[in-house]
Write a structure and sequence with these properties.
Elements: H1 3-15, H2 21-35, H3 38-45, H4 58-76, H5 80-85, H6 91-102, E1 127-129, E2 137-141, E3 148-149, E4 163-165, E5 170-174, E6 187-189, E7 194-197, E8 211-213, E9 218-222, E10 235-237, E11 242-245, E12 259-261, E13 266-269, E14 283-285, E15 290-294, E16 307-309, E17 314-317, H7 323-326, E18 332-334, E19 339-342, E20 356-358, E21 363-366, E22 380-382, E23 387-388, H8 399-403, E24 411-413, E25 420-422, E26 436-438, E27 443-446, E28 460-462, E29 467-470, E30 484-486, E31 491-495, E32 508-510, E33 515-518, E34 532-534, E35 539-542, E36 557-559, E37 564-567, E38 581-583, E39 588-592, E40 605-607, E41 612-616, E42 629-631, E43 636-640, E44 653-655, E45 660-665, E46 677-678, E47 684-687, H9 708-734, H10 736-740, H11 759-765, E48 774-777, E49 781-788, E50 793-800, H12 807-818, E51 829-836, E52 842-849, H13 856-860, H14 876-895, E53 900-902, E54 911-913, E55 919-921, E56 928-930, H15 932-939, H16 966-982, H17 997-1004, H18 1025-1032, H19 1036-1053, H20 1064-1086
Parallel strand pairs: 2-4, 3-5, 4-6, 5-7, 6-8, 7-9, 8-10, 9-11, 10-12, 11-13, 12-14, 13-15, 14-16, 15-17, 16-18, 17-19, 18-20, 19-21, 20-22, 21-23, 22-24, 24-26, 25-27, 26-28, 27-29, 28-30, 29-31, 30-32, 31-33, 32-34, 33-35, 34-36, 35-37, 36-38, 37-39, 38-40, 39-41, 40-42, 41-43, 42-44, ...
Antiparallel strand pairs: 1-2, 48-49, 49-50, 50-52, 51-52, 53-56, 54-55
Helix pairs in contact: 1-2, 1-4, 2-3, 14-16, 14-20, 16-19, 17-19, 19-20
Length: 1087
């Protein structure tokens, strides 16, 4: 082998072992040799002192060079062949990267497309290699690539890694424990993914770690105390996970820490005093947990602190009087939603870098410091929902004079306090940067300053519930950026300024409950972005302008009640196609109800009571099937009550009282419950259910003579028909076996509204019932996602496992139950297939519409390896809507269909969610069908049937031989409702020794409910804590009322004694009442 080649390989070999003299000297000699010049060789020998330990003569160095070459020859002689073919490339890192790629099946942006042999792995996207240690990967950066999959354990083979950044992807599964092998790792950024499980304990071996960012994942368990051994750690961000337990006191050992973020978890207990050891802390964020006690005083003494966020806990105590001096670098302070008390420290004005100060939703008292104008950087000042104010003098709002010096001020909120006095004219001199001004629910009096029109960039003004008087300034019409204006519940007088029509960006205008007079200005019709208009409870006169009811953007509602409006409701009301609530009660409106009102398809509340409307109720209102509440009482309406009201599935309040209606009151739908309907004051009505207490309708008898021939003909015809039916029945029985084996006969094929589908079509639709199309597996079969190619429609195919005992019966039961059911909250069946497969075996399948958001089970308890269809955080209103949907479905099954149906297996996995998050009840495989008579008879007989239902959800009386009943479904629903709001299964390990989900919830009522509900119920989707305060403003205390009502309902429904449970009709009514209360609260907050 050539000497130079051997020497070259020798150098590569020694490079791996980090030699000093033996690296530098031979390499430079080799380069000089190649150049072929003794002078070059000589110059090469002139090495810096750090490269060699001893100064050699030129001859000595030449001898050394020859010695090394000879040594290399002798050392590699036996392996010369191997050296010729050897490569300096380090394959272990490349193999590890390919293993990592193999676990990432989802790569929509093609970030890993070039991770192959066409490029050296150091040139792959997201990869950085070391300059010193060739081929060794030091950085893995794949942030924001929409990658989906798991992180391979082979990541532990990349032992030279210093940085891992997988931010903003869709990784799931556990964080591999092999990360503990990366002892050189300095940065670990896995934020904004769906990692689950706990933090690996052997992360402590990564002793060089400086940054850990695991924000916005699904990690759980307690915070690993071993993290405290990572002495070099600077940043620890664990926010937006499911961590529970206490903050480990050992975190105080991280004395180099600058950033600590533990917000949006389920942490409890006190903030440990041990954190006082972290004197370098500058970013401290622990908001939205269940922390209690006082904040250690040392945390207010860290001069480097610039962000201090404790929003949404149960912390108490007061702010140190010298806080402005001890936190001179403070920029953001969030203390909202706690139990803090005391005064706002006067020294706060010394924190001259302060940009955001938010202490809303606490119990602060006293006055607002008058020198906050020193805070030149202040953008955000929020102290709403406290007890701030003196209520003695009239100068509580003088602090506003100082705020005119805050040239960056954008947000000013001092709503729901006890501030008293006039609004200073200096409000007009606030910075033009201000976007929100909220002072609702105080005791502010006097007029609204005219100069308020100077705040040209303001977007929201709320003076709601005060004592303002005088006229509404016309200058408000100059505020072109204004989106929300709330002046309701004051003492304002005069006319509504026509200049308000200039506010083309306006979405909400509330002037209700004042003393406004005059007519409604037609110029309001220019506000084409208006979503809510509330002019109710004033002294307005004249007609309703057609321009106002032509604002097609009105969606939340139009409220004109309690005025003196006259004339008819304009025909243009049909333009309000998006409106949900229309209230024109207690006016002097006349004429007929416009037929075009039927075009308002989104209406769910329509109140026109207390007017002089006449004529019949239009047939066109049949299209308003979304109505929940309808009140047209105290008018002069005549004619009969339309039977189409029976078909309105959600209608639970119908007031027709004190009109001139006549005829028979319908019996079904909303009319089946006397508590939902009022028909008093209509003397010509009759019939109806007994609860309405109306006189029975008198049937007019006709006295016609019946001829003898007619009496003879009827028996002959009846006899012939009976004979013919008997013959047909005989033929059907004889052909039953043949029909059962028909190649593509369907259980629903004789019903024209159902499609026909064959086995082969289903086989193609599911790619041969491929496991890749499998959605789930149940007791009697498997469900596949399929695409029916002929109609290009995605469906769910439930294939019955006929080898399973009871499966065939389940199929028949489900077919019988579903073929006649029609309700928006029941899973819609497309068709059924009863055929044979390719091997001649019997085949049974049901075809349903496909539910893209899966089951409620997947949202409450996501699977480790399940597909994620979006965020798994369900808000309160989402859960409440799902609860209403499920209750409405059960109410329909129990009370509105014949035969009535008892589901028998209600649980989260049988509640599916469509693309609008509307719930659909599914799986009627063990349902029981009853006629009214058979149901009553069944309840009086003991049962020997096997218990129906799933463990935890099945009614306790079923275990004692009681027959299947509607009350059993109510019990299951109650458990489901409790599970939805606590996120605890009835089979949770904590429910032992007599403790159940039912009595766990019952014991928490009413004062401890917030301690058992899923904390995610009260969290906002927006992680920005500023938005949290703006959007909610009055959250925990008021939301608790709705949660207490929901938990109470769940406890009542799951009562052990069946007679103590509600009917589903009552449940629906109660839930709608909770929803109405919730919407009322948050409407008032937004105002």
């Amino acid at each position: 082998m050539d000497v130079i080649e051997v020497f070259k390989h020798y150098c590569w070999y020694m490079l791996d072992y980090k030699s000093s003299i033996v690296i530098i000297l031979p390499v430079k000699l080799y380069i000089a040799y190649v150049k072929g010049s003794l002078s070059t060789i000589k110059s090469t020998m002139e090495l810096p002192s750090h490269a060699i330990c001893t100064q050699f003569s030129f001859k000595q160095l030449i001898c050394l060079f020859c010695f090394i070459c000879m040594f290399s020859l002798s050392s590699f002689k036996s392996d010369s062949a191997a050296l010729v073919t050897a490569s300096p490339v380090n394959e272990s890192d490349r193999f590890a990267l390919l293993a990592i790629k193999s676990q990432i099946p989802d790569d929509p942006l093609g970030a890993l497309t070039l991770w192959n042999d066409s490029l050296h792995h150091c040139n792959w996207q997201g990869i950085t290699c070391s300059r010193r240690h060739r081929e060794r990967v030091t950085v893995l950066d794949l942030q924001n690539k929409e990658l989906g999959g798991t992180v391979s354990p082979y990541i532990g083979n990349l032992t030279f890694l210093k940085e891992i950044t997988l931010t903003k992807n869709n990784f799931h599964g556990e964080i591999p424990k092999e990360i503990g092998r990366l002892f050189r790792l300095q940065k670990l950024h896995l934020d904004n993914n769906s990692f689950e499980g706990e933090i690996p304990s052997n992360i402590t071996y990564c002793s060089d770690l400086r940054q850990i960012n695991l924000v916005d994942n699904k990690l759980s368990g307690s915070i690993f105390a071993g993290i405290s051994s990572l002495s070099k750690l600077l940043i620890l961000s664990l926010a937006k996970n499911n961590f529970s337990g206490r903050i480990p006191p050992s975190l105080g050992n991280l004395t180099s820490l600058t950033d600590l973020s533990l917000a949006y978890n389920h942490l409890e207990g006190n903030i440990p005093d041990d954190l006082c050891s972290i004197r370098s802390l500058s970013f401290f964020q622990i908001g939205i947990n269940n922390l209690t006690g006082k904040i250690p005083s040392c945390l207010f003494n860290y001069s480097s602190m610039y962000r201090f966020a404790c929003t949404g806990n149960r912390l108490e105590g007061s702010l140190p009087p010298n806080i402005g001096l001890t936190l001179p670098n403070l920029k953001n302070m969030f203390l909202g939603g706690n139990k803090f008390s005391g005064h706002i420290p006067v020294s706060l004005s010394n924190a001259t870098r302060l940009e955001v100060f938010d202490i809303a939703l606490n119990a602060f008292t006293g006055s607002v410091p008058s020198d906050l104008g020193k805070l030149q950087a202040l953008r955000w000042l929020g102290f709403g929902v406290n007890q701030i104010g003196t209520q003695q003098g009239g100068d509580d709002l003088n602090f506003i004079n100082s705020l005119t010096n805050c040239s960056n001020l954008e947000y000013l909120d001092f709503s729901e306090n006890v501030l008293k006095g006039p609004l200073p004219d200096s409000i007009s001199n606030l910075s033009t940067t201000i976007r929100l001004l909220n002072m609702q629910q105080n005791s502010i009096y006097g007029s609204i300053p005219v100069g308020i029109g100077n705040l040209v960039n303001i977007e929201k003004i709320s003076f709601y519930i005060n004592n303002f008087s005088g006229a509404i300034p016309t200058s408000i019409g100059k505020l072109n950026q204004l989106r929300e204006l709330y002046l309701g519940k004051n003492l304002l007088s005069g006319q509504i300024p026509s200049s308000l029509g200039n506010l083309t960006q306006l979405t909400t205008l509330s002037l209700s409950e004042n003393n406004l007079s005059g007519s409604i200005p037609p110029t309001l019709g220019n506000c084409q972005n208006l979503e809510q208009l509330d002019l109710s409870a004033n002294n307005l006169v004249g007609t309703i302008p057609k321009q106002v009811v032509s604002i097609s953007s009105l969606s939340t509602g139009l409220f004109l009640s309690q005025n003196s409006l006259t004339g008819s409701l304009p025909l243009e009301v049909g333009n309000l196609t998006n409106i949900m609530e229309l209230v024109i009660s207690d006016n002097q409106l006349s004429g007929h109800i416009p037929k075009l009102l039927g075009d308002c398809l989104n209406l769910n509340l329509l109140y026109m009571d207390g007017n002089f409307l006449e004529g019949e109720i239009p047939k066109s209102l049949i299209t308003l099937k979304g109505l929940v509440s309808l009140d047209i009482s105290r008018n002069k309406l005549s004619g009969k009550i339309p039977k189409y009201f029976e078909q309105f599935p959600n209608l639970n309040y119908l007031n027709l009282s004190f009109n001139l209606l006549e005829g028979q009151v319908p019996l079904n739908g909303v009319f089946a419950n006397a508590s939902f309907v009022s028909v008093d004051g209509n003397p010509n009505l009759c019939g109806g259910i007994e609860g309405l207490k109306l006189s029975p309708c008198i049937q007019k008898e006709t006295k016609k003579k019946t001829s003898l021939s007619f009496k003879v003909i009827i028996p002959i015809i009846v006899g012939s028909v009976c004979l013919l039916l008997s013959l047909l029945f005989f033929l059907v029985v004889c052909r039953k076996k043949v029909l059962n084996k028909a190649q593509s006969s369907t259980t629903f094929s004789n019903i024209p509204s159902y499609m026909r589908v064959s086995y082969m079509e289903l086989l193609r639709a599911t790619n041969g019932f491929s496991v890749d199309y499998l959605i789930g597996v149940g007791s009697y079969g498997s469900v596949f996602k399929g695409i029916l190619q002929d109609i290009n429609q995605t469906v769910a195919v439930k294939v019955i496992n006929l080898q399973q005992e009871g499966a065939s019966k389940s199929f028949i039961t489900e077919c019988n139950a579903l073929r006649h059911l029609r309700h928006r909250n029941l899973l819609k069946i497309k068709t059924a297939c009863s055929s044979v497969d390719l091997l001649g075996n019997d085949f049974r399948a049901l075809v349903f519409e496909f539910m893209p958001y899966g089951s409620l089970e997947e949202w409450l308890h996501p699977r480790v390896n399940g597909q994620q269809h979006g965020p798994r955080n369900l808000s309160f209103i989402q859960r409440l809507n799902i609860a209403i949907d499920v209750a409405s479905a059960l109410e329909y099954l129990h009370h509105r269909c014949q035969p009535c149906v008892v589901h028998c297996d209600l649980k989260p996995s049988n509640v599916l969610l469509d693309e609008d998050m509307t719930a659909r009840v599914a799986d009627f495989g063990i349902a029981k069908l009853f006629s009214a008579a058979s149901y009553d008879s069944a309840q009086s007989q003991p049962s020997s049937e096997v218990i129906r239902g799933s463990i935890g959800y099945v009614a306790p009386e079923y275990g004692m031989g009681v027959k299947v009943s509607m009350q059993g479904d109510v019990f299951s629903y109650g458990i489901l409702l409790l599970e939805m709001f606590t996120r605890k299964r009835p089979t949770d390990d904590m429910f032992l020794n007599g403790l159940s989900l039912h009595n766990y919830a019952e014991m928490a009522l009413p004062n401890q409910v917030m301690g058992i509900v899923d904390p995610l119920v009260v969290l906002l989707e927006d992680t920005n804590e500023i938005s949290n305060i703006v959007e909610q403003n009055n959250t925990r205390a008021r939301l608790e009322e709705c949660l207490v009502s929901a938990i109470t309902l769940g406890v009542t429904c799951s009562a052990e004694v069946p007679a103590e449970r509600m009917t589903m009709s009552v449940v629906v009514s109660e839930l709608l009442h909770i929803k109405k209360h919730y919407q009322t609260i948050f409407r008032s907050i937004s105002e």
